[in-house]
Amino acid sequence: MALSTEGKTKREKRRLCSLLFLSCPSFPSRSLPCFSLPPSLAFPQNKQTHASISSELPAIDATNQLLYCGDASGDIWEASLAQFPGAPSSPPRVLARTGGRPLSHALTADGSQLVFTDAVRGLLSLDLTQRALAPNAPLRLLSGYASDPNPATAASGPVSFAQGIALTPTAFYFSDTADAPPALPASPGKPWNAFGATRANLFSGKPTGRLLKYDPATAATTVVSSGFYVANGIALSSDGSAIILNESMSMRVLRIPLSGPDAGIATEFARSPGYLDSLSATPAKDGYWVCVFSLASQTIPGLSTALAASKALRAVAGNLPESVTSAFIARGDGVMLLGSDGGEARGWLEDPDGSVVAGVSGVVQYGNKLLLTAFDGPIKVVDVPAFVAASPPG
């Protein structure tokens, strides 16, 4: 007799739980002073459409006190920070429209170009000297395909889901999350379903994430490293010799040298207490703010850590319906501050019930403030806490 949908779901859950007993790893349990996120200020807001300006990782122009970010509808915004952290001195405005889903943003050293990843279109740039043409400032597509010079990995292919970004004067590094691109909008005018693709990539069980390099001098994009279980946020190391990368599904922060005999070989830099999203370097270049958007401790006991450790289990989860896998992404968010040398944790901010920022996806430090973002929510502002040195949470 055929099982009902409900019966199939129960059977799939039982199958998954039975695998947990075989796959659950042993993660170190250490204590870390925990600070709850205080009530925060929503900043900024588009007063005309009442739509919150949201972004995975905004770019900050500290010299001119400006913020740049994209939103779920594909617009690129400019907002003033002159009265930060109060209301902006002038209304935010749309500079350009991508038609996709902008995620992470960065400014070139001279501040003339905004370079950003778009989950739909790839790597793009906007010439800020032409901001007078807003809201139709011209966009330039930098990369939509990457070639792999290493025949052993053979990871050449189109950019499916551009995510994190880190710039040097001679190279633009960005991550390609995995091979499942955002789904088409359900109807005209609706945003791309980037979160659905994120969920699919998390539980696909396939190591298809890549770290890519775009060369502005040659306009060529090459694969630096590949084989990641959801390559998410990235940042340049404090000495500029490596990229720090969040591998979301394995709950690991990785370090990838950019030159020398170990170039492109990823090693573990730190472990996370949950699924990882973006990260950014501190202004002093002495650490990294790391986003954790779903705490392992808030899911089915042992489930997240088991999924992180077991390729086979992730492959099983990738074939389960969304009604089941939705339980794997639990409420409970946090921001971890890692040291720049050995990846030691210096502090932990958490929002266990999502009352401050539900689904934290990005964090950028601006002076003594933290700008916290949610995937499709408003930017929130909180004070930078005085963390003490400690071990990472278990």
What order do the helices and strands come in, and which of them pair?
Elements: H1 5-23, E1 34-36, E2 41-42, E3 45-46, E4 51-52, E5 59-61, E6 66-70, E7 75-80, E8 93-97, E9 102-107, E10 113-118, E11 122-127, E12 139-143, E13 145-146, E14 157-158, E15 162-167, E16 172-176, H2 194-202, E17 209-215, E18 220-228, E19 231-236, E20 242-247, E21 252-257, E22 267-271, E23 274-281, E24 287-295, H3 303-309, H4 311-318, H5 322-325, E25 333-339, E26 345-351, E27 360-366, E28 369-374, E29 380-383
Note down, in words, how this protein is organized.
The chain is mostly beta strands. The protein has a single domain, classed as TolB, C-terminal domain (Neuraminidase, 6 Propeller), CATH 2.120.10.30. It has five helices and 29 strands. It has helices spanning 5-23, 194-202, 303-309, 311-318, 322-325, and strands spanning 34-36, 41-42, 45-46, 51-52, 59-61, 66-70, 75-80, 93-97, 102-107, 113-118, 122-127, 139-143, 145-146, 157-158, 162-167, 172-176, 209-215, 220-228, 231-236, 242-247, 252-257, 267-271, 274-281, 287-295, 333-339, 345-351, 360-366, 369-374, 380-383. The strands form eight sheets. Strands 1-26-25-24-23 form a five-stranded mixed β-sheet, with no helix packed on it. A hairpin with a 4-residue loop joins strand 15 (162-167) and strand 16. Helix 3 crosses helix 4. The radius of gyration is 20 Å and the shape is globular. Residues 1-38, 40-51 and 388-394 have low confidence and may be disordered.
